[in-house]
Amino acid sequence: MSEKNILFAGLPSSGKTTFIAAFWHFLTDSTSENLISLNSLAGDNGYLNGICRQWLNFNPVTRTNPNGEEIVAMNIKNNQNGQNAILKIPDYSGEVFRNIFDLREWSTLFDTLIDETDGIVLFVNPTEKMNRPQFITIENEILGLFGEELYAKNTGDKKSWNVAFVPHQVKLVDILQFIEYKKPKKLPLKITIVISAWDLVINNNHTKNYSPVRFLSTYLPLLFQFLVCNEDKYKVEYFGVSAQGGNYDGIEANELMRKKPEQRILVREEDSITNNIAKPIFWAME
User: Fold this and answer.
1) DSSP-based three-state secondary structure for 241
2) Strand ordering across the sheet containing 119-124
3) To which H or E segment does residue 283 belong?
4) Nearby residues of 261 by Cβ (< 8 Å), 6 or more positions away
5) φ, ψ (nearest 5 deg) of residue 7
6) Is-contact 172 102, C-beta < 8 A?
7) Which domains does the chain carry?
8) Less Cβ crowding at N or C end of the chain, within 10 Å?
9) pLDDT of residue 140
10) C-alpha torsion angle, residues 223, 239, 29, 261 (rounded to 10)
11) pTM confidence score
12) What is the pLDDT of residues 31-64, one digit of tens each?
């Protein structure tokens, strides 16, 4: 039996745990048409059932251990070719990945995990303001037009540089460079880019017709260019995923409640749309 170790990576609030909650429901629901089916689960399923229950009840999915990690190990079957595999999905908190950039360090356990990694599912939050390249552009325009220094809002105090101001795409590129340095023998490494909250992208008049590739190249150009220019090191596929399906408040929540749970899920590949949330994982483990 083969073993595939797929690392779920992303900064805080990038959608990793919500994705796993929806994936667990999709995997265990007998009515779902799935590329992957579950043979057995190694260890306690309490963590998975807990986050899945939150997802089913239209509650924001929260981690039981916000500062640590959960290692999800599944004995699964590839329904296209009948092959079985052990799929290990470490759900590390976003703080772990943020500390790689902020503190230039990771734990011994994480170091061992990177040695075993066969693929990465990298999550990006499209609503995160620190992903926006316009943040630096606008400030530079102000400086060029008016000669003004950067000031804190409503005060006369100059802003002191802080690592929190670094755009997330810079941090994500840095994390990928760390991983590349650690495990050159397994390159090229398969990376699935998951742009979370895809319902917000398609509900925006400026981006409603964007594909995942176009969105990433437009709004996270540094990350996109890094991946394109390093195709000898990374084999990449792009997905837009809405694991929630929409906003849990107001009229949109009422519409979601009328759907079956798996029908709330939206997965956009370049030229196709489906409810099958297993597709990003399936691509990473092929």
Assistant:
1) strand
2) 36-42, 69-78, 84-92, 2-9, 119-124, 189-195, 234-242, 266-268, 273-274
3) helix 279-285
4) 25, 29, 55, 56
5) -90, 125
6) no
7) 2-130+168-285 (3.40.50.300), 133-166 (no CATH)
8) N
9) 59
10) 100
11) 0.84
12) 656 677 888 887 668 888 999 999 998 888 876 5
- Give the dihedral sign, CA 63/65/68/69: negative
How wide is the angle at C-alpha 21 spanned by C-alphas 72 and 217, nearest 5°? 95
Mean pLDDT of the chain: 81
Picking from 188, 159, 191, 185, the residue whose alpha carbon sits closest to that of residue 172 is 191
Two structure tokens written together for 19: 């994705």
Does pLDDT of 149 surpass 60? no
Q: How many helices (H) and strands (E) does the chain have?
A: 11, 9
Q: Which residue has the tokens 């290692």?
A: 71
Tell me: pLDDT of 1 over 90. Answer: no
| Residues 65-86, mean pLDDT to the nearest whole number | 72
3-class DSSP string for 132-201: CCHHHHHHHHHHHHHCCCCECCCCCCECCCCHHHCCHHHHHHHHHHHHHHHCHHHCCEEEEEEECCHHHH
* Three-state DSSP state, 85: strand
